[in-house]
């Protein structure tokens, strides 16, 4: 299969949609639709989670309701199967104003 020439626009659009859902507590459950029920993986502070249900359980266990996010870069790479690998780098700031650095690959 050919590489997707729109990989950069797809990556940036996906990140925008993802965080719009994540930041709205009423819409956050819809993130489950973006994860595969069995094969999606997430590592959070050294804890490895597999599957949409486990990932959503982790999101629901987070203690903050609002967080400031400063995205430094969104790097997207085309995949040979037509997909897009997205790497997001930035900084999170809780309401307590403690900085937390993060990196997200989707």
UniProtKB/TrEMBL annotation:
Its main location: cytoplasm. GO terms for biological process: mRNA transport; nucleocytoplasmic transport; protein transport. It holds the Pfam family NTF2. Gene3D superfamilies: 3.10.450.50. GO terms for cellular component: cytoplasm; nucleus. Keywords: Cytoplasm, Nucleus, Protein transport, Transport. It is found in: Cytoplasm; Nucleus. Residues 10-92 form the NTF2 domain. Has a role in nuclear-cytoplasmic transport of proteins and mRNAs. This is NTF2 domain-containing protein. The lineage of its organism: Eukaryota, Metazoa, Ecdysozoa, Arthropoda, Hexapoda.
């Amino acid at each position: 299969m050919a590489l997707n020439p729109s990989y950069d626009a797809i990556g940036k659009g996906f990140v925008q949609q993802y965080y719009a859902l994540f930041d709205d507590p009423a819409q956050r459950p819809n993130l489950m639709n973006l994860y595969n029920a069995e094969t999606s993986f997430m590592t959070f502070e050294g804890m490895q989670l597999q599957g949409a249900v486990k990932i959503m359980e982790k999101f629901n266990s987070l203690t903050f309701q609002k967080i400031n996010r400063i995205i430094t870069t969104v790097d997207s790479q085309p995949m040979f199967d037509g997909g897009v690998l997205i790497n997001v780098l930035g900084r999170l700031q809780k309401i307590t104003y403690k900085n937390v650095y993060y990196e997200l690959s989707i």
